[in-house]
């Protein structure tokens, strides 16, 4: 099993001990844990929205959530504790960043949230109905595409540190909007691979129960990425219309 989500990789599951038959990972359990993580993220997002002074915590929280994500990759047994903590920290980041976009483009956050969950439901329906079958070829295409996207993001970030501005990645030109549409499409497609990975891991019948939290964490990572890409795309479209 391969997935484009770095959190949900087969290496982690191969290294797990076998669990007792009455204490194993299930799809329903993972869904429940995902809702808990989403709820925690929404709570802190709402809290940080009304506290603009928390923007000073943005960089430290990004570092902390990154460390938590890396720690989870090596210690999935910690996921019942780190996954909720990650959700809380990610919520503060979401609320702070979203409030900035909302100040510039009133109403954009509500649209982005609605579209994100609409895409989630569409991808879930497409997966469950077998309208889109997650084949090895599809996994490879999406994984390579997402790898290329993050490589471009990394190069753009590094060049930015040296004063090189890749304006086509951030402005509202047709090229920039086209890139955002492509990236958003890959972010949405990554959900299909996450659904498939979680289902296959649950079907093993010996995956430890705590991996439900790990699966929820991985799915949250994809949803946050999708939301940010939709937010960026909408901001570019509104900038072009203004």
Euclidean distance between termini CA atoms:
45 Å
Q: What is the helix tally?
A: 8
SS content category: mainly alpha
Q: What does the largest sheet look like?
A: none
Topology order in helix (H) and strand (E) letters = HHHHHHHH
User: Got a strand count?
Assistant: 0
Account of the 3D structure:
The termini are far apart. With 242 residues, this protein is mainly α. The protein has 8 helices and no strands. It has helices spanning 10-14, 27-49, 58-74, 79-104, 108-128, 136-161, 174-203, 211-241. The chain has one domain.
Brief write-up:
This protein has 242 residues and is mainly alpha-helical.
What attributes does this structure have?
globular; 242 residues; 0% strand
Helix/strand layout:
Blueprint: H1 10-14, H2 27-49, H3 58-74, H4 79-104, H5 108-128, H6 136-161, H7 174-203, H8 211-241
